[in-house]
Amino acid sequence: MIEATKKIIFVVVIVLGVVIAQTLYFYRGIYIAPPTEGYDVNNISIPSYAPKEFIDIHGKGNGTVLLDFSHDNDFDSEELNILISRIISRGYTFKYYRGSKNESENVSLKSFLKNASSFIVILPKKEFEEEEKTEIKNFVDEGGRLIMIADPTRNSEINTLSIEFGVVFWNDYLYNLKENDGNFRYIYLKNFKENTTITKNLNKIVFYIASSISSPGNGIVFTDNNTYSSSKEAQGKHSPVVLAYDGKVLAIGDLTFLIEPYNNVLDNNQLISNIADYITNTEAPLIDTVPPLVNNTSVNITSITLNDSICVNATVTDNVKVDKVWVRIINPNSIAKNTFLSEDAPCAGTPHDNIYGAIIKLNISGEWYVNTTFANDTSGNLGSEKPYPNIKIKVSE
Amino acid sequence: MLKNPISFRNIISYLRDSYIFLFILSVIIGIFIFNFFIKVPNIGVITIDTPIMDEETKEDIVKMLKYAREDNSIKAIVIKMNCPGGEVTNIEEIYLEVLRLRSKKPVVTSVDRIGLSGGYHIAAATNFIYAKPSSIVGSIGVVLTLSEPVEETERMITTGPYKRGSHSMRYYAGQAEMIKEVFLDVIVSQRGNRLKISRETLSEADDYLGIEGLKYGLVDEIGSRSNALEKAASYAGIANYGLVDINKKVLANNETNITSRSHSTKINQTSPKVDDKDTMPIEPVYYYLPIDYYLKIEQRKEQ
């Protein structure tokens, strides 16, 4: 019995020993897994695409805008629907230049340009010939406007024309990794040259893959310090919109912003209207809300005899144009009467000095009062002198 | 008849009394118990050396990860990485499976030539990343392709304007941006304090050599596959381990890599150039893939 127990213990010890020895031979520690997190998407923001409302306020003119279709241009006319409709609403007509198919047709570019006020060239895939360049240059020199549009996502030979006007479209795209409209190539543009038709009323626009344009001193829209060019190493201001050749040549490095729905983003619609104004040489009417400024209501004499006359003057100025000026006079019977003043009255000042006048006969004895002067402007804004001067005139018999 | 014949009963009796025999028997039992319950440790090696563009390739990899997770003899895994990336949902599935595996067993990546985009996305889920000095890692970004539009006809009736996917390029770019942000979040959270490069710089989608990757915290050490095996072993606390080629074990027909299958698989839609004109797309497809690899794969499909 004791012998059997000894043997069992022996076996168990050996078995355990082998197991432990092997374990120690193969295993030296245990794995402690790091914390495991899957995808945390709570902080991913979903962009919103609500369009900005826009009303196109525009002037009216007449003329013809010519659009080039003779250089295998890489765009569809539908892509210009918005710009074309804005131009037409300004009273201009649109014509397409498709070149000549045979020699008997008199469809030379020169003949088309003769009747046009502006010429638009977009993404030409064919080079411009010397004769064409000369005709376009003459057209611009004689007062025509040239608009050139390219886009880095489509190849073109636009530089064969633009170079004639000192404008070069770079073979790059502009990008901003810090702040953009949902993609690093959809850049915000907030820096504008002041007092140009193209940049008026713009705060922020978006270009959707735009190239930079080189025309020293002629940039009118500029990138910020966080926007880079894909082909230029140096940091600096880039310009995707340029107004060159004494303001007669407009060059734009993006086509997409003209197309739905990209036109509805930020101030893109305003930019398109500005471009339409530039192309048609019209300006939107000013919406005037400022009333005329009226002051210095005065009379030449404050004591007269019955049926004598007085001269009433007032100074009236307006930011746009004064329409009518009148003075309110209250007679000794407390009845008020309005009398118009004019700039060319005998007792008014010299022309264009803003002094209006009128000669008024006082036919009731007693105390008259020149209450105050009123004026309105061509937009219907009403102004008056305040406080009311209430100048007393004594009329004796 | 011989005197004292050797009978079976006599042999058993002799052995029972022999301590040498008992010793040998105990050792055999001990070895058996060890192999049955504890097992000789192995390190499983999974090779990913192809773009992960199609469902089949993805399923192969998921199967291998599952095998590695369930086989008790496999105590650690080394992923031999030579992958430029692939279709986003495929990569994401594999990433989640690697995370699941990592929660149970250590996983170490050994980047061979490339661990780019989706390939790096998968590597980011592992405990440790080795690369050679000239390996290429990075390309943290998304490629989006859109199909040709469907013509409007009266005979195709849909119940909503976006049923045909009639969004603008801006909308899809926004979606690609969201996926990119998810990718960046993965790298930043998985690399944690090891990362020495800003999120903004990463979002440039640049490639980095192994030595640059080490400097920026995208790679943990420069080393070979042997280093990766040793590291995996040290994480698992094992020594004197065996190696299991999981590709051989799991994939049918002795395919040791999944490259050939991936090349023969078609993608079910044509994919225009990335910078094509704005069209009305149907099914956008997102890839974690450098653009030149995407174009090469497309060219190969067309041939």
Write the layout of secondary structure elements.
The complex is a heterodimer of chains A (397) and B (303).
Chain A: H1 2-26, E1 63-68, H2 81-89, E2 92-97, H3 109-114, E3 118-122, H4 130-141, E4 145-149, H5 159-162, E5 168-169, E6 174-175, E7 186-189, E8 191-192, E9 205-208, E10 213-214, E11 219-222, E12 228-229, E13 241-244, E14 249-252, H6 268-280, E15 293-299, E16 303-305, E17 309-317, E18 322-330, E19 336-341, E20 355-361, E21 366-377, E22 382-384, E23 391-396
Parallel strand pairs in A: 1-2, 1-3, 3-4, 4-14, 16-23
Antiparallel strand pairs in A: 5-10, 6-12, 7-9, 8-11, 11-13, 13-14, 15-17, 17-20, 18-19, 18-21, 21-22, 21-23
Chain B: H1 8-17, H2 19-38, E1 42-48, H3 55-70, E2 74-83, E3 86-87, H4 88-102, E4 107-116, H5 118-123, E5 128-131, E6 136-138, E7 143-145, H6 169-191, H7 199-202, E8 207-209, H8 210-216, E9 221-222, H9 225-236, E10 242-245, H10 246-250, H11 259-264, E11 285-288, H12 291-302
Parallel strand pairs in B: 1-2, 1-10, 2-4, 4-5, 4-6, 5-9
Antiparallel strand pairs in B: 3-11, 6-8, 7-11
Helix pairs in contact in B: 3-4
Could you characterize the architecture of this molecule?
The complex is a heterodimer of chains A (397) and B (303). Chain A has 397 residues and is α+β, with helices and mostly antiparallel strands. Chain A has six helices and 23 strands. An eight-stranded mixed beta sheet of chain A has the order 2-1-3-4-14-13-11-8, with helices on both faces. In chain A, strands 16, 18, 19, 21, 22 and 23 form a six-stranded mixed beta sheet that branches. Chain A has a three-stranded antiparallel beta sheet with strand order 15-17-20, with no helix packed on it. In chain A, a hairpin with a 4-residue loop joins strand 21 and strand 22 (382-384). The radius of gyration of chain A is 39 Å and the shape is elongated. The termini of chain A are far apart. The model of chain A has no long low-confidence stretch (mean pLDDT 91). By secondary structure, chain B is an alpha/beta fold. In chain B, 45% of the residues lie in helices and 17% in strands. Chain B contains twelve helices and eleven strands. In chain B, strands 1, 2, 4, 5, 6, 8, 9 and 10 form an eight-stranded mixed beta sheet that branches. In chain B, helix 3 (55-70) packs parallel to helix 4 (88-102). Chain B is elongated. At the A-B interface, helix 1 of A face helix 2, helix 4 and helix 6 of B.
